[in-house]
User: What shape does this take?
Amino acid sequence: MANPGHVHWQALKWVLRYLNGSLKGGHRYKRIDPGRDALEGYVDADYA
Assistant: This one.
């Protein structure tokens, strides 16, 4: 993605807003393996 367009920036802003709001809602993300670029997500079902 050498030259992302306007739609891509809008999508990125939406994702960042979602993640920012979800930090207060019981989501937790962590790296599965320090050598890999992968995330594992958890949700606190009691919070929802």
